Structure formats: C-alpha cells, structure tokens
TrEMBL record:
It comes from the Eukaryota. The lineage of its organism: Eukaryota, Fungi, Dikarya, Basidiomycota, Agaricomycotina. This is Uncharacterized protein.
Length: 237
C-alpha cells in the first residue's frame, strides 16, 4: 500500500488511453493490481498467493488486451495490402511458386513446414516479405524471427528466436523445453499465429529445429537463407 502511488504513477495515463477519461485513484490502483496479477500469471502464480495483497475488484480484461497480440496486429492493413500488391506483381516464376505453396498452407491452416533455400541475392527475402504483407493485410499474425540479432533487425517486427520462443541458451538436448507457460499471454499469442518466418534457421541448434516443428503452438515456420537444412516433415522449396 505504501508504494502503490509510485508503482502506479503512469497508469492513469494508460487508462485515459483506453477511454477512461477521468480515472479515480481507486481505479488506478485496482488496474495496477490487475497488471501485477497478469505478470504473476505469466509465471504460473497469482496475487491470491500473496496475502495480504488486495485483489483487483474490477474485470480489467475487457480493457487490457493482450499486448503480445496487440503488437502483432498493430499494422495498417490497407498499407500492407498496397505493399503486398506491389511485390506480388514483381515475383518471378520461382518466387511465385514458393509464395503460392506457403500461402495455400497458411490459408487452409495446414500447418506445413517449408525450407526456402537458394544462393545469396536470389530473392528469398523478397518472397517472405510478400508473404508477410499478405498475412498482415488480412489481419492475421506473421511472426518474424531470426537466429541472430543482426538478421532480426532486417525483418519488420523481427525478434531473435531465443527471445521470442524463450529457447534455453545452454544445455540444449532432446528433452529441452521452451520456458513458455501455456497459460501466459505469450502462449495465447503463439496459438493465434498464422505463419512464422524464421530467417537463418540453419544457424540454430538441431534440437531447437526439431522441437519447434512439433510444438503444438506452432503451425508453420518458413526458413530463409542459404544452407542445406533437412527435416522429416519439411517441404523444400
Ligand atoms: N522479383 C523481384 N523483383 C524485383 N526485385 C527483386 C525481386 N526479387 C528480389 N529482388 C531484389 O533483389 C535484391 C536481392 O533480393 P533478396 O534480398 O530478397 O535476396 P536474398 O536471397 O534474400 O539474399 P540473401 O541470401 O543475401 O539474404 C533485393 O534488392 C530485392 O529487392
């Protein structure tokens, strides 16, 4: 109670951004408790386990959307559509073949895994950007990850795969698991993903690749970059 004013000092602003034009102090503190509870839920705990902490009284879920989902949907769909159309018209035959294979799987929710392989500068990035624009123009989620921070910088909305999927950094083996609680907001977002584009996947430890391809959260990922990666259930393009 003693520190609540300091902990919640930016929440009045956030509530105003959500349409509550004059939030009372009680609303601000209650919203703060709700956010604390959300953070604890991400690690499988809850405020109820920490008496005498008060519990939130209002249902703030209707107000506070999942920030992971909001981030992935925060694209201007009309702009994405225009960018998709520009690129789609320019695809050459091979690129169009790869694009069509992936988009059929995405649209029909087939959950296939593809590897796109080719020499440097042959237009692999061009294809996956076209896929991304199409998916985002439909209001769907395209996750872009890369095995290195530098490669992730080149992707729109890109993150490193370790950061996105909480992949263990050390001691990877065939029983390793990603540190994602299935009740977390990150897991909720992953369950809604339509396509995952994974640049430079061949740089990844083989246990990461084989586990992600059977992970129930993941419907599809789509590898770009030179190299000869193989997987029993991947289609090579
Ligand atoms: N169909 C196309 N029409 C016009 N420009 C294209 C087309 N395909 C690729 N390009 C251009 O060619 C250049 C190289 O393409 P891109 O970066 O997609 O290759 P890449 O295979 O991903 O290369 P790397 O393996 O080095 O990452 C880029 O400037 C891209 O805009």
């Amino acid at each position: 109670m003693q520190f609540r004013h300091h902990i919640c000092d930016d929440l009045a602003y956030r509530l105003r951004a959500h349409g509550i034009s004059h939030p009372t102090d009680e609303q601000v503190y209650d919203y703060g408790l709700h956010l604390l509870d959300n953070i604890l839920h991400d690690s499988g705990r809850s405020l109820e386990e920490f008496p005498p902490m008060p519990l939130p009284q209002d249902d703030w879920n209707v107000l506070a959307e999942n920030p992971f989902i909001a981030e992935q949907l925060n694209y201007d769909r009309d702009r994405e559509r225009v960018q998709w159309a520009e690129r789609f018209d320019q695809l050459n035959d091979d690129q169009r073949h790869a694009y069509n294979q992936v988009m059929v799987s995405v649209e029909q929710n087939e959950g296939q895994v593809f590897f796109l392989n080719g020499p440097g500068g042959t237009g692999k990035t061009f294809v996956y950007r076209t896929v991304c624009h199409k998916v985002r123009s439909e209001g769907w989620i395209a996750l872009c990850v890369a095995s290195s921070g530098v490669a992730a910088l080149l992707l729109k909305g890109g993150r490193t795969s370790h950061s996105m999927f909480k992949i263990p950094v050390q001691g990877l083996c065939d029983t390793s698991t990603c540190a994602i609680n299935k009740q977390s907001r990150l897991a909720d977002m992953l369950r809604r993903v339509n396509v995952i584009i994974w640049d430079e996947v061949v740089m990844q430890n083989r246990f990461v690749v084989s586990h992600m391809s059977i992970c129930p959260y993941i419907q599809i990922y789509y590898q770009m970059g030179p190299g000869g990666c193989r997987s029993h259930n991947a289609r090579h393009l």
